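Re: How this chain folds, sequence and tokenised backbone to follow
Notation: Tokens come from a learned vocabulary of local backbone shapes, not from coordinates.
Start of record: The labelled sequence and token lines come straight after this line.
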Amino acid sequence: MKENSLTEGSILKTLLLFAVPFLIASVLQSLYGAVDLFVVGKYCGAESVAAVSTGTQVTQIVTSLVTGLTLGSTIIIGQYMGSRDYDMVKKTIGTTLTAFAAVAVLLTIGMLGLERELLTLLQTPEEAFELTMQYVAICSLGNIFICGYNALSAVLRGYGDSTRPMMFVGMSCALNVLLDFLLVKYAGMGVAGTALATVLSQAVSMFAAIIYLKRNNFLFDFKLTSFRPYGMIVKKLAAVGIPISFQELMVRISFLYLMTVMNGCGVYAAAVVGISSKYDVFAMLSATSMANALAAITAQNMGAEKPERARKSLWYGMSFALAVSCLFWIWAQWNPESMIGVFSNDSHVIAAGVPFFRSCSYDYIMTAIVFCLNGYLNGRQKTVWTMISCSAGALVLRIPMVYIFSRNFAENLGMLGKIAPTVSGIMACYTFGYVLWEGRRKKRNVA
């Protein structure tokens, strides 16, 4: 397979050619949860919607951990690609895939063992509890496929290739949509059917990726002897990836706390937050995709000793992410009823969701800034800073605000919706300040 350099040519063209397939893949991957919720909302009751909403929040803990670790792999591989050290690239790939097989097993054991306690802690509505148990258990059994697919995608993106991951996830998404309708509408499996559809589609995607790469003479040969961890690389992956995973986990915990508060307000409030979380994903996709693209592009350019090219990529990427996020903000301000109606026809859910959507949608704009800045910093291996920043936002800002607001405005979903944009706005200010300070410090050192 031909390598893809992100260190040469037009900066804007290189950024878009790499980031747009990344964005399309992210949109397709996000359709997993959205299609699950859509099908359940159309063919099942409110308790099933609440079950998938809560269950998705739990399974996203796994996704967050995996995403953080795989991004570490993308960054390390990107830097070795930038410096043209192909032997280290191959060793990093073998270490990544071996490590993630072990991580998948540990996550499966942990999720299955602590499932009931975790759902109880989240105050899952009683009428949706057993359905949520089914969803989480089935998804947990598919962790090996989730880890495998994400690891392969991370490797390819570090290699400079964002197109093939898009192809693999497109195949998986199409299969997931088909299976959702077959298992829920026609087989009557309900919540369990949506979870099974997700697991099977992820498995097909992972095996298709392996077969394709082997047939196209990829740098890594996938022989059993090549699956081995190298101590030095494990330490480097841990140093870069664990801070990213930790910050993702802290953010996820803070949102789980919000879900817990909303679950305590009843099944309609729980459904509103679940639906809102789907739009959060889509509205922020341009930002999350651009952030991950910036991490890979920055890593390769830093490896090639082209820091100015990396900085220019940041400003281009942030402008693109903001433009897309603003479109969703306009929709939420103009007609939130239509947004909620895509996933639920229940008039109570729609009425409860309108004020929440109008206030929380400001977060779409704030996170576009935060995510892009963090993606750039991650590519420069400033992952300890991003860990501290995001953890502070989650633990020092978001959780205390949820607690205070829930005590004083428990029935006012509009007020609860203001928490996320307030936190993200504060984070945007101090992260932007850090990037400017770091740039000036580098220039002073060079001078």
